[in-house]
Design brief:
This protein has 6 helices and 8 strands, in the order ββββααββααβαβα. By secondary structure, it is of the alpha/beta class.
Amino acid sequence: YEIKFIPPKVDAQGEYDINVSVIYNGKIYSYVVKNGLTYGTENVDVALIIDSSGSMVDNDPYGIRKAGAKLLVDKLDVGDAVTVVDFDSSAKVLMPLRVIYNESDKEAIKNAIDKVDSSGGTIIEGGLNEGYKQLNSSTTNNRKVAILLTDGENNNPFDYTVLDNYKNDNIPIYTIALTGSADEDLLKQIAS
């Protein structure tokens, strides 16, 4: 696997697109997240909801989902906050929502990301529930977002009611499909 993150040239505060290209078995998959990054004085609370199911042994043997999550943490600013949620057959919070004040906060968050394993089933709504609880517990006035990284085949019929809290609080969920075996239709429905 090879993932290229091409940040846009930043000339001013504002919103910018994220361009993501993945090369898998010699084929290039590209995706653009419109207004995916906001540069300026606005801080953000981010729920990193990371698939740790057993299928990740084959679908992400090099830990690209972890490397990508850590890259995001490196790009965050003082005042941003991050929670790390690991999900498989159940969900667990590896890092409760933590405000970044310095580099040691970023290192603690990245250490939590390193604890994401690869075993069990895939219950996406469990990860989304825990991510929402963490964002809802925030004491900041930051904008809130969730980022779901998964190979995306839910083991049970997906319970769409988990999305109601996100909709009611206007919290976007950005979904990232890891490999072509992901249920892209489900991930598009979650994101929309």
